[in-house]
Please model this.
Amino acid sequence: LEQGGASLRIPRQLSFNKVFGDPLPFRRKKLRIVALINGVPYVNAIRETRNEDVVIAPPIAPPGQMPVDTDGAGVDQDSIETRSDDIQTAASIGRSALGSPRLDGGVGFDGVSLHPVMQRMTESFSKLAEALPFTQLEAEDVVEAVDRVGEMISLFGASMLPVRTSVTDNVVKIRKQLAALKKADEKADTRLAFLILADVATKHKGKKEGSVCLSALWMKRCMDFQLLFLKRLIDGVDSYAAAKEALDAKLVPWQGWLLRTTCRTGMKMVPTRAKIIAGLLKGGGGGVDPDIAEAAVMDSMRRLLAGFSVVLLEWGHFVEEHDLNFPEKA
Model:
């Protein structure tokens, strides 16, 4: 640590094999770093062989952006599974909420003020639901909605940092590809489905780190996690149990040991159900009766699922139709 603990230096000559040990000493290691620095998610993997010292110090990146992993050793996410049974059930819950009064300026059930992220998510996914089928959705509209989910996850503290980091990281990767595409051709087709299939049609690009295809698949997997987590909260399940079930069902089957261990360790710090409810209220819900607070948040979640679950269901159909459930683990 340097500058009174404000920065972290990893010397070029530091041997990961010697420090961490390895039953296969000839194997080159990568040191995976997942952190939250000044409120900005940071993820990177430092190689065993380095040409210079690595210094991590704030500011890491402007808010809403991820640091660029120049050696391609960041979060390797190249698989996805679509579990349409849970999504279909959630879609039913969501559709049942379509007849409920819309949120107005973040005010929900019984006049309780909700955190702005609830309104932003509901509006983003309602917009997507109205624009379905999935093949017609603009990439930026999908990315914007997914970014809102990252905002919600950030309210749960460090417990879901790996998931939040993955969401933010892949949002930035797709936006980077979009910017390059528009720079080359202002009239280019920027629908997400078109960009995904264009990657698949290019040899080896579909599974390439940083591609729209791979980034979108990982975003979808994180959305599946968040959907199941919210659905279980609506069902009245304890927050830790809900997070563990969502993690085991939607992420663990496609994670390598390191990423799986990181996520499971984080989930042990998931806030209590009461704290999550309070976090989703404007100003932390101070002075609001707990029963009324829970009713307001659950009502808001049902409204959110009206669009969220339907969009994920259609997205899942697209993934299945084009055989994009890559089996490789991250």
Remarks:
- Confidence is low (pLDDT under 50) at residues 60-84, 92-105.
